[in-house]
């Protein structure tokens, strides 16, 4: 699957990110980039080499990479990886990190793993946007950096 199989909702995401200050020179990390729904538009917008994305689903990454080649976006040199929350992008510092509908599908220990693994990829100016579900009555509890399942 690729970007072409999605709706046009990416336009509102890109507009939101621009309103939050995203400029073409910023380094952008797309967590759970899937088939490129957001990435396809961002690669067009960002300067060469500034888009980074990863997803754990091989079929999505393969489709996204094919779409990049067939749409001639390869000259923008995006980085699209098959990976998980331990994926490394050498010594890149990100200006924006976007995890839309990713953390809503994983347990809190994996969210903590992501931030532990990416803490050296952010600065005090990095803007991070995520969607999350907070459970008050049941589920997980995170206090003081520690996490445990509620019984």
In short:
With 151 residues, the protein is α/β, with parallel strands linked by helices.
Description:
- With 151 residues, the protein is an alpha/beta fold.
- Helix content is 27%, strand content 19%.
- The chain has 4 helices and 7 strands, in the order αβαβαββαβββ.
- It has helices spanning 10-19, 39-45, 58-70, 108-118; strands spanning 28-31, 51-55, 79-82, 96-99, 127-130, 140-143, 146-149.
- The strands form 2 sheets. The chain has a 5-stranded parallel sheet, with helices on one face. The chain has a two-stranded antiparallel sheet with strand order 6-7.
- A hairpin with a 2-residue loop joins strand 6 (140-143) and strand 7 (146-149).
- The longest helix has 13 residues, at 58-70.
- The radius of gyration is 16 Å and the shape is globular.
- It starts with 9 loop residues before the first helix and ends with a strand.
- 29% of the residues are buried.
- Residues 1-8 and 143-151 have low confidence and may be disordered.
């Amino acid at each position: 699957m690729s970007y072409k199989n999605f709706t046009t909702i990416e336009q509102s995401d890109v507009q939101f990110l621009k309103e939050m200050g995203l400029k073409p020179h910023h380094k952008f990390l797309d967590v759970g980039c899937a088939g490129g729904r957001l990435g396809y538009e961002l690669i067009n917008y960002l300067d060469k080499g500034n888009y980074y994305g990863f997803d754990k689903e091989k079929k999505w990454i393969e489709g996204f990479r094919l779409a990049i080649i067939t749409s001639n976006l390869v000259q923008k040199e995006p980085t699209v990886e098959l990976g998980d929350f331990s994926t490394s992008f050498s010594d890149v510092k990100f200006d924006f990190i976007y995890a839309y509908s990713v953390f809503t599908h994983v347990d809190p220990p994996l969210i903590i793993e992501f931030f532990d693994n990416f803490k050296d990829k952010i600065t005090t100016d990095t803007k991070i946007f995520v969607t999350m579900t907070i459970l008050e009555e049941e589920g997980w509890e995170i206090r003081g950096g520690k996490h445990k399942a509620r019984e």
